[in-house]
Structures are given as C-alpha cells and as structure tokens.
Write a structure and sequence with these properties.
The protein is mainly beta and 152 residues long. It has one helix at 139-151, and strands at residues 2-5, 11-15, 22-26, 36-40, 46-52, 58-69, 75-84, 87-92, 103-109, 117-128, 131-136. It has a six-stranded antiparallel beta barrel. The protein has a three-stranded mixed beta sheet with strand order 1-5-4, with no helix packed on it. Strands 2-3 form a two-stranded antiparallel ribbon. A hairpin with a 7-residue loop joins β9 (103-109) and β10 (117-128). The two termini are 21 Å apart. The mean pLDDT is 87.
Length: 152
C-alpha cells in the first residue's frame, strides 16, 4: 500500500498505479478520521493508499550509534530506526533508564557517501521498552547536514 505524505496545505496528488493518471485532492477531512483509503481511477483500477499527516517526511534507516544521558551519566549503544527534520526514533540495545524530557546526546554516522558524523542533543518524548522517540534540541543546527540526506 502506497503512503502519501500530506503537507501543511492538506492537498495531495494521488497517482493511479496502473495508468499513471494524477488527481489532486484536498484531504483535510481525513485528518482526524481514516488514514487508510481506497480510490477508483477513471481507468477502472481500484487501489488503496495511506495518508501520513506528519509535518515532515520520516526516513527509515538502520544506523548504529551511541547515547549519553546528560546529568545521569548513563550511556549505551543504539540502533537508529528513522530520522526526520525534527527528530529521531531509536532503540537501545540494552534496557535504558530514560525519562520523558531527558536531554540525551546522540553520536552516529550517516550511511551516505560522505559518511557524515552527527553529534546532537535530543529531548526524549516517549519511551516504549527499548524503543525511544526524541526531538532535536535545535533542529536548525542539523538542517545542512540532514537536508540532502533526508530527500535521497
């Protein structure tokens, strides 16, 4: 099932997977309800797609790295699962002692040709066992480094 990212305008382009016909639609009425939808093209093809109302595209990755919890001295290894312009989702390899709003320093290397090394601070937004959602403390610092990486 194709995922369509919805920008701030709430307008998307829905493209038929068979004939390629493009249809532009306002999907704001689906923001608080259904995200999995079905469409029927003029060519007769019926297909399903998912709407993602995230503010920014989230790139799935598998990057190894390290974390250091500011003020607690805890540290460990992580596997970064996805990155967006404003945050990172990662999993710790061992049990963690994170609390919501902890400030954590992350170190990892991007898997692009330049092997860009990233060192940044994040604020923990949620914890679910080993899985952790976080937000960059200052996303503007990483705009240059992550900008091209996220669109490729």
């Amino acid at each position: 099932m194709e995922k369509i990212y919805v920008g701030h305008t709430n307008k998307v382009s829905i493209i038929c997977p068979v004939c390629g016909l493009e249809s532009k639609k306002n999907v704001s009425k689906f923001k608080e309800t259904h995200k999995n939808l079905k469409a029927k093209c003029k060519c007769g093809e019926v297909f399903r797609f998912t709407l993602d109302f995230r503010r920014y595209f989230r790139k799935n990755v598998r990057l190894t790295g390290e974390y250091f919890v500011q003020g607690k001295g805890d540290k460990g290894k992580i596997l970064i699962e996805d990155i967006s312009k404003t945050g990172i989702k990662f999993a710790t390899l061992e049990p963690n002692n994170f609390s919501k709003n902890d400030l954590v320093e992350l170190k990892f290397t991007l898997d692009n040709p330049m092997k860009m090394k990233i060192r940044t601070r994040v604020k923990i937004l949620w914890i679910n066992d080993f899985s952790v959602g976080s937000q960059f403390s200052d996303p503007r610092i990483l705009e240059k480094d992550l900008g091209l990486y996220l669109i490729k």
